[in-house]
């Protein structure tokens, strides 16, 4: 602040005070050390506060008001906020977003310093004090609201700019041109007053995870926070007796071993995925060209949902034979169990027309199972009714590796003894994701089941698909009193069949209230590291699985022979015979 008399020269009265405050901060927060942003904020605080008060205000900013790693050497926190800001501009200022994209302008080059100094370096002191009043009272969401307000006030001028240089200069000058604080606050609140802390934190968590995955690094325990684990001021509220009994106290030893444990979990999962992939490549040669290296780029996450909704079934519909059907007449189509039949006509619900090995004829519809080839081509390598080895790899290797990830950091109920099961967390998170619009979700689920709307395309969102799968597993498994371990393995199989296992992980980890309820702060699911797991799981969506959801359940005793039952239905409908088929 060379223009201020208190800091104009080395001998100015404010310089030694600022130096002492910054040294104290560097000692208290060694992970931060010195950051130019803290110097600017501390200098402004010293203009109207004593040294000690300014120091404690800085502590409040670092610990409470701004997210982790805001002033660290990596600046991950403030970089994340820039991505959140771009997301909010798309939502609140779509015309400006289009302009920035057309001219390929990186807004963070301008606004990063606004956030890093909480506007201290870019606005007049009179305006700054009003901004900080809101900042200290309402929190960091004010930074987004005011930035959106400033951009909205200059939106027309920006749109009328002739070239990229003019737009860039106008953006850079916006804060210094803000004079009417009442106008700015009014516009900001009208435009983005509905922005909540929950919405901001949700976007922060998502974009921080993407940022770390994009850089190809797994955040360590110390990097998750700006604060020293030893000297951080703690005013944490003590747990109630009931909470302590149910979920126990935090395990400090687990904090120390967090990095080692996470590395082992990722390595085990990666090995399990590669074993499944190698099985596909050895069993079915058409999978040999599948790329097994995970894509950690930011663009890969944007393409996930595009690829999910873009898939559709090819015009050719095929089915797998469930049992042998011998051909007696020329117009019949004979086949063996597990043969793949191309369906020509399904006009009759009991009697279909199909083609196999150049022959065409009719066959009972109940003797085949339609293959799900909406976004994949059937492979015997992923069919557990044909290739038993895939069952051992998925249920015996992959599922335990995933379960270990879900159990990492799961809060332990000391009163009951033992950990809560991940299945309970998945149930609650799946329900929470659809409860906001449960009526419409339920209607879509009923329509899909009644009219089979999802046979030719994926009309359900990953959240709705997860909810339906959880309910389906509960219905079938509760009837035989199956354990929660079995339910979890069956759900994973459904996710592999639908090629959405990685998207389901994103859904679960994005349910912040549920994750915070069930998991410790040091757990994998509450750290940005879950994005790495998502990238690893994405490899599996390149393979076609046809796994039975009920594989581990006791086999049902069939009351009637399937051949006679199917033939009877068909013959009765067409009035071909009148005698009892069972006779």
TrEMBL record:
- InterPro entries on file: Rab-GAP-TBC_dom, Rab-GAP_TBC_sf, Rab_GAP_TBC_domain, Run_dom, Run_dom_sf, SGSM3_SH3, SH3-like_dom_sf, SH3_domain
- Cleavable signal peptide: none
Its keywords, alphabetically, are:
SH3 domain
Q: Which GO terms describe its molecular function?
A: GTPase activator activity; small GTPase binding
Annotated ranges, domain SH3: 314-373
Membrane-spanning ranges: none
Domain RUN as annotated: residue spans: 389-552
All residue ranges annotated as the Rab-GAP TBC domain in the record:
1-139
Q: Which domain of life is it from?
A: Eukaryota
Instruction: Output the SUPFAM superfamilies linked to this UniProt entry.
Output: RUN domain-like, SH3-domain, Ypt/Rab-GAP domain of gyp1p
Q: Provide the family line.
A: Belongs to the small G protein signaling modulator family.
Q: Return the protein name.
A: RUN and TBC1 domain-containing protein 3
What gene makes this protein? SGSM3
């Amino acid at each position: 602040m060379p223009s201020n008399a208190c800091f104009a020269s080395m001998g100015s009265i404010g310089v030694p005070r600022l130096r002492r405050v910054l040294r104290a901060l560097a000692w208290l927060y060694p992970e931060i050390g010195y950051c130019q942003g803290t110097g600017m904020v501390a200098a402004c605080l010293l203009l109207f506060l004593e040294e000690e008060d300014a120091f404690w205000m800085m502590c409040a900013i670092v610990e409470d008001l701004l997210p982790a790693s805001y002033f660290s050497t990596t600046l991950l926190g403030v970089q994340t906020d820039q991505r959140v800001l771009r997301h909010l501009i798309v939502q609140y200022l779509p015309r400006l977003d289009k302009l920035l994209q057309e001219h390929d302008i990186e807004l963070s080059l301008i606004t990063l310093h606004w956030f890093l100094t909480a506007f201290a370096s870019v606005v007049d002191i009179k305006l700054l004090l009003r901004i900080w009043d809101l900042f200290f009272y309402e929190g960091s969401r004010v930074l987004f609201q005011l930035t959106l307000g400033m951009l909205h006030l200059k939106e027309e001028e920006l749109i009328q700019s002739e070239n990229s240089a003019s737009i860039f200069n106008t953006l850079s000058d916006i804060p210094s041109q803000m004079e009417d604080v009442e106008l700015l606050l009014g516009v900001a609140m009208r435009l983005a007053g509905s922005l909540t802390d929950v919405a901001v934190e949700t976007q922060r968590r998502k974009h921080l995870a993407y940022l770390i995955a994009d850089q190809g690094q797994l955040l360590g325990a110390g990097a998750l926070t700006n604060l020293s684990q030893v000297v951080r001021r703690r005013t944490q509220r003590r747990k109630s007796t009931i909470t302590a009994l149910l979920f126990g106290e935090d395990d400090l030893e687990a904090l120390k071993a967090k990095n080692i444990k996470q590395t082992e979990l990722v390595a085990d999962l990666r090995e399990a995925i590669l074993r499944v992939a190698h099985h596909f490549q050895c069993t079915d040669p058409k999978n040999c060209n599948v790329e097994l290296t995970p894509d950690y780029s930011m663009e890969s996450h944007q393409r996930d949902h595009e690829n999910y909704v873009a898939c559709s079934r090819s015009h050719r519909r095929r089915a797998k034979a469930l049992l042998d059907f011998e051909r007696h007449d020329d117009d019949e189509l004979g086949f063996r169990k597990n043969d793949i039949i191309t369906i020509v006509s399904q006009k009759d619900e009991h009697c279909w027309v199909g083609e196999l090995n150049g022959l065409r004829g009719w066959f009972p519809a109940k003797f085949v199972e339609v293959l799900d080839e909406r976004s994949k081509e059937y492979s015997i390598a992923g069919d557990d009714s044909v290739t038993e080895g895939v069952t051992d790899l998925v249920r015996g290797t992959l599922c335990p590796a995933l379960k270990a990830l879900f159990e990492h950091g799961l809060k332990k109920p000391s009163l009951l003894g033992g950990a809560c099961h991940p299945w309970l967390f998945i149930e609650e998170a799946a329900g929470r994701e659809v409860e906001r619009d449960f009526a419409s979700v339920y209607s879509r689920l009923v329509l899909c089941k009644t009219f089979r709307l999802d046979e030719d395309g994926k009309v359900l969102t990953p959240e709705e698909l997860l909810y339906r799968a959880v309910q389906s597993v509960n219905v079938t498994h509760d009837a035989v009193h199956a354990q929660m371990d079995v339910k979890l393995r069956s759900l994973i199989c459904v996710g592999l069949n639908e090629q959405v296992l990685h998207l389901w992980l994103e859904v679960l980890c994005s349910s912040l209230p549920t994750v915070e309820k069930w998991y410790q702060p040091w757990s994998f699911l509450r750290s940005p590291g879950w994005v790495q797991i998502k990238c690893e799981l994405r490899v599996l969506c390149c393979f076609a699985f046809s796994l039975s959801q009920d594989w581990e359940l006791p086999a049902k005793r069939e009351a009637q022979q399937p051949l006679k039952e199917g033939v009877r239905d068909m013959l009765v409908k067409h009035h071909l015979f009148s005698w009892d088929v069972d006779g």
